[in-house]
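ARCHIVE CARD
Drawer: 12
Card no.: 0347
Subject: one protein chain, sequence and derived structure
Cross-reference: see card 0346
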Amino acid sequence: MVVPVAGRKVLVTGSAGHLGEALVRVLREQEYAVVGLDLQGSACTTVVGSITDRQLVQTCLAGVDTVLHAATLHKPHVVSHEQQAFVDTNITGTLVLLEEAVAAGVGRFVFTSTTSTFGYALTPNVGQAAAWITEEVTPIPKNIYGVTKLAAENLCELAHREQGLPVVVLRTARFFPELDDRDEIRAHYTDANVKANEFLYRRVDLADVVEAHLAAAREAPQLGFGRYIISATTPFGPGDVAELGQDTAAVVRRLFPEVEQIYDRQGWQLMPRLDRVYDNARARAELGWTPLYDFRAVLESVAVNEDPRSPLARTVGAKGYHSVPTGVYTVR
């Protein structure tokens, strides 16, 4: 288990969400003093309020050495919230936290971003090679969520350059447990099938996301600033992208001869083609991060009829993103 710095106090924003709860749980198990800040009360929230409330943030930061900033408006909120709300929470809220973290002498700041910032860079035309996504790929956000998260990333970099705050930005792949929001995907694949396929190229287990945040907090003072893709380790390499864009199943069967039998028993299907693959090599090398949950781990679990999710992911479960009916992301 990677932990930030022994004997220090940690502020976790978004403590009622999937990642925030998971972070608080793990830190409490390691006997850290944790301040959980969220608009929603929960077992992992110690202070109810907004990250845009400067006075409240100042109070929460008293004695804090590490900030793990997971609070955000997410992609599911695009259909339910005005664009200004995204600016207020994702940009202004992050700016308040950064400024007050500097003023409080915080030693390390980890910002939870998203691979959604890549946007249109992830969608080559049908029949083209899959996009190999590293940190060098230029983001082209496609909605207000991606735009505001990218802006917040840039504020993080500015806080480091101008104020010397050690900041690590983590662009996390999918780890939410809710159903896929695309009608055509839900019509052709079971939810478990979708998530298993995504471990090939764009999903990560919640426990591995937590470990990435703690590793980032540990390394932040040495790094100064860094951006990293946090996704399950793909079995593919850059040399596979042309075939992945044409016949993904052929590549997967070649790498995992057992996949056909396991998938047939579940009534599952492989994706016909992939549009992108996330490469987490830099995060593993520079953060010392060792993700445990990948496509092979999924196959091994499913082969013996075990839940492929980590115990932490199972404990946190599904929360949804709305308190009133709003499609597949509604609280259940």
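Annotation on reverse: Residues 83-104 form the longest helix (22 residues). Residues 171 and 229 are 5 Å apart (CA to CA).
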